[in-house]
Amino acid sequence: MPRTIINLDPDDKAWLDREAKARHVPMTEVVRQAIRGYRLAQERRRPPRLRDTLQRTAGLWRQGDGLAWQQRLRSEWER
């Protein structure tokens, strides 16, 4: 695992030390969990990529010709 050196405000470092002690884990584990949680939250907020959505939904429509169905629905708008 690569090592990274960061500078923290004294209050943040003190909080990390207290949190690590309360959880009975090393301070580095608290940092790793925080980064992992932040990364996952960011990924959930991003809209899905079109390619991923198309791959997940490919083949879902099983009711015949989708274009004909769509045109039939739209023809109701013209009445």
Task: Explain the layout of strands and helices.
Elements: H1 10-23, H2 27-45, H3 50-57, H4 66-75
Helix pairs in contact: 1-2
Short recap of the structure:
This protein has one domain.
Keywords:
79 residues, mainly alpha, 0% strand
Description:
- It is a single chain.
- By secondary structure, this protein is an all-alpha fold.
- It has one domain.
- 65% of the residues lie in helices and 0% in strands.
- It contains 4 helices and no strands.
- The longest helix is centred in the middle third of the chain and has 19 residues.
- The radius of gyration is 25 Å and the shape is rod-shaped.
- It starts with 9 loop residues before the first helix and ends with a helix.
- The model has no long low-confidence stretch (mean pLDDT 92).
Count of alpha and pi helical runs = 4
Instruction: Note the main sheet.
Output: none
The Rg value, from CA coordinates, equals 25 Å
Strand content: under 5%
Q: Count the domains.
A: 1
Envelope shape: rod-shaped
